[in-house]
Amino acid sequence: MLRFGLLVPTLAESQPWGMEHLRAAARYGDAGDFEVLWVGDHLLYRLPILDSTVAVSVLGALTSTVCVGTNVLQLPLRRPIDVAKSFSTLSHLTNGRVILGIGVGGEFEAEWRAAGVAMKGRGSRCDEALDALRWHWAGIEKQGKHFYSPAVEVAPPPVGGTVPIWVGGRSHAAVERAARCDGSLNMFVSAQRYVDIREQILELRGGDVGRFRFGLEIMTRIGSSRDEARSALQGALRRMNLDADALERYNAFGTPQDVAETVIAFARAGVDHISFYMPGPGWADQVDQLVGGVLPLVREATREAA
After folding, report:
1. What confidence category does residue 107 fall into, taking pLDDT thresholds of 50, 70 and 90?
2. For residue 185, what pLDDT is reported?
3. Can you give the pTM of this predicted structure?
4. Could you state, in order of their start, the residue ranges of all structural domains in the chain?
5. What topology does CATH give the domain 3-305?
6. Pairs from 196-204 (Cβ < 8 Å, separation ≥ 24)
């Protein structure tokens, strides 16, 4: 079953974000159209951005039914014990409504220098940090190459003993990392590339899907025409110092019908969770158009396909 996520724009790309905006996002989340409210992550960045763990905590307190999570936390920048404790507490306080989306990060060198962590070798640190999270939640004594866990479990423990972990990234290493966790969160990939990613994950998991989630985040802009939506989306991408022209083919933009067609193509490629990142001005209006105009078209088409 295809379900949807919503990226809460805690990055001040087009306007500063405060508590009133988080309250608005919480209302959208609990209205029932979305499975997860996601937030992005940076310690330092070119633009102001809210701390991801704090923002997830606030969203968890403001909501009662929707899940909340990071999309994605740059795990190698952190000590696993800190992440394990924070997300165990979040899981406990939200009755298991938190998802830890992680990735290797690495595009903004200044935050790595500030954190005292070398960018080189971050993939290895990320792989071991994933193991270390589980060591801490289970109270396993283990000495790894980068991290140590004593024989003391984090308490209170997360609901069910662990926090669901979804992995972002589109490289071969990122897909391998995702296959040993609970879900993937790919971005800037085509529908055909997603078919390949899904097949690779299935192969790595021995064909066992279980409760694994095949997720995608897609930058989205809705307008009265494709040209209008493209222009607004390109402006937002450039403010984030991204190559708007190179990334255009991976985004969803245009009229509600245009956006729905893009989303439906990914659903047919095997995606079962699509998170919408809607940068640019007028976020609430964009979400209203998404909920009222795009999602009904997608639901109708995917229901007919089923």
Report:
1. confident
2. 96
3. 0.97
4. 3-305
5. TIM Barrel (3.20.20)
6. 197/170, 198/269, 198/270, 200/172, 200/175, 200/176, 201/175, 204/175, 204/176, 204/179, 204/180
